[in-house]
Amino acid sequence: MKFDDTLRRAMNGEIEAMQEVAYAYLTGQDIEQNIVESERWYEKLVALEDDVAAMEYAEFLYNGDGFEKNPSKAIEIIESIATKGVPMAQERLAQIYCSSERCDFKRAVQWRKLAVNQGYPDAILNMAIMYRLGDGVEKNYEKSMELLKSIANFFPRAYYEMAQIYIEKECYEIAVDYLQKDSDEACSQYQLGRVFMGDHGIERDMDKAVYWLERATKQNAVRPMVMLGCCYQDNTYGIANGERALYWFNRAIEAGDYSCYSNIGNMYASGLVLGKDIDKAVSYWTKAAECGCVDAQEYLSSIYRKADIVPENPQLAFYWANIAADNGSVQAQIDVAYDYFEGYGTAKDIYAGIEKMSTYANGGNTTAMVKLGCLYRDGHYVEQDIDSAIYWYKLAETQGDAEAINCLGQIYCKYLMKPEQGFEYYLKAARMGLSLAQINVAMCYKNGQGVKTDIKEQEKWLLKAAENDDDSAYVYLGIMYNEIEDYDGAQYWYMRAVKKCNTYAMCRLALLYKEGRTRNITEDNARNLLLRAETMGESWATKILEKLFNNID
After folding, report:
1. What are phi and psi of 407, to 5 degrees?
2. Nearest by Cα to 53 from 18, 14, 88, 83
3. Which of 63, 374, 412, 424 is deepest in the core (most CB within 10 A)?
4. Helix and strand counts by DSSP (H, E) for the chain
5. Closest by alpha carbon to 336, among 364, 308, 297?
6. pTM > 0.90: yes or no
7. Burial class (CB in 10 A: 0-12, 13-18, 19+), 518
8. Can you tell me the distance from the alpha carbon of 363 to that of 399, in angstroms, rounded to the nearest whole number?
């Protein structure tokens, strides 16, 4: 037998034969599969410092292909090769440390730069991408371009990456030139299609867009198939065609993108290019969900809750939320916990809800961490426990969650009576751009809570919140200007809030009228504002109406 001869040569120390034996035992090729024997031969090759076989073995261990998954051992093997100066191993370590499982950009940069210094093209390309994105290094287009130009003549993918720089700079015509230099690659063909769709500053030319996207599909690239389906699924791009959309979405499904079942469902739901058929729509959404598409699972759960597309079905809503939650959907995880709290689609079970929420939070769901903090802070579904609230908020703080940091400010100000610490938390969250925290900082400056009163700082932080289009900030600005008797300013900000349907602002504006502090607002305007606020559920509007317009004191 061929294997017997190979085994004999391997036992005599022939490296190539040892590699073949190790791989044959792993895969069951020409011999019965034997993982233990495969591992024994690979370990021999590692001991003999056969870098090629050692890298192959490490990849199997890292991914759990054949052998039991063992990333730590894999990294140890790759690092032993990398320290000898082998650029392939250095770049592989960089890739591992860039991955979401490791996420250590500092180490990634250290190893990648070693490979770059040896002229390893993959490392040069990926280092250029890091400079473009600012991952692990300071964003620097010039350094990125310099690296890409050094390999472009023999590594065409570099032209694609150069084009990405110019797309980010919104220099689309230059980007097109670079993409056309790499026009044999599917990724560049796809990007050219996207550019000519008119989404990137170039005049829309759907003939060119379809041409480039279809060229990319000839290399079995899935994304262009999906994009072609999207071009035809409605009239956004002026070429609506239900049959063509179905063709390309089905091609993408055949290639493994089952999310396109959802696109087909959407077409049947809208009725724009196919006959409207909600049953078919639900059937396709369900196919997508059954194929593991988390967005479809989450969407099915939502429509069975809202009852605007299909009749409400709490059991199916819970069923799909549970599956989406197990697949990592943040919103579905929250929904499942609250379903247990409320007994929606399942038996009411507060303990199960807390247990689920805690499991999701410990698994990294920062929304669940914040929700748990709020439940313990407010004593909702559980006994109030400020220490537990702080624990969950601080856990979310380690993930950089601004809402949790703002909640810590509230805890220290209102529950622990430590306003100085509370203010620092508010300020931290405010600097992260959270408008609610910016308003809280402003209120601290107004009331002297944890900091000296300062109306200029109050105004500064309210204006920052207003930049975030927060109607609450508009109202607070209106109140501030009202208090300093700048009634034109007050009216301006109240009007901004009214345009956002803020009922409190409607009432405040009506009161300004009563006090004779407004311009161009008649009694009818004021009454109509209050009536509008009242119909929107604002009880204060009812009281003002009675007092101002019915002479009730």
Report:
1. -65, -35
2. 18
3. 412
4. 32, 0
5. 297
6. no
7. buried
8. 12
For the four alpha carbons of 45, 47, 50 and 56, in that order, the dihedral sign comes to: positive
Q: How far apart are CA 347 and CA 318, in angstroms?
A: 11
CB 350 within 8 A of CB 318: no
Q: How far apart are CA 326 and CA 93, in angstroms?
A: 30
- Measured CA to CA, the distance from residue 204 to residue 196 in angstroms comes to 5
**What is the distance between the alpha carbons of residues 474 and 145, in angstroms, rounded to a whole number?**
45
Angle at 427 between CA 424 and CA 428, to 5 degrees: 85
Average pLDDT, the chain: 93
Q: Which amino acid, residue 222?
A: V
Query: What is the enclosing helix (H) or strand (E) of 252?
Result: helix 242-254
Half-sphere exposure of 231 (CA within 13 A, CB side): 27
pLDDT at position 102 is 73
- Per-residue model confidence (pLDDT) at position 338: 96
pLDDT less than 70: residues of the chain: 1, 550-553
CA distance 295 to 288: 9
Half-sphere exposure of 450 (CA within 13 A, CB side): 22
Copy the structure tokens of residue 303.
């429509």
> In this structure, are residues 548 and 517 in contact, taking their beta carbons and an 8 Å threshold?
no
Quick one: which of 312, 223, 303 has its CA closest to 269? 303
Residue with tokens 């469902």: 265
Residue 304: the pLDDT is 96
Q: Hey, what are 39's tokens?
A: 């591992």
The CA distance from 341 to 505, in Å, is 35
pLDDT at position 513, please? 84
Chain centre to alpha carbon of residue 360: 17
Alpha helix stretches (DSSP H) within 386-502: 386-397, 402-410, 419-431, 435-447, 455-467, 471-483, 487-499
Question: How distant, in Å, are the alpha carbons of 354, 387, 396, 408, 457 from that of 391?
Answer: 15, 6, 9, 10, 31
Q: What is the DSSP string of 25-54?
A: HHHTSSS---HHHHHHHHHHHHHTT-HHHH
| Cβ neighbours of 308 (radius 10 Å) | 8
Question: Within 13 Å of residue 95, how many CA atoms lie on the same side as its CB?
Answer: 16
Phi and psi based region of residue 469 (left: phi greater than 0; alpha: psi -120 to 50; beta: remaining): left
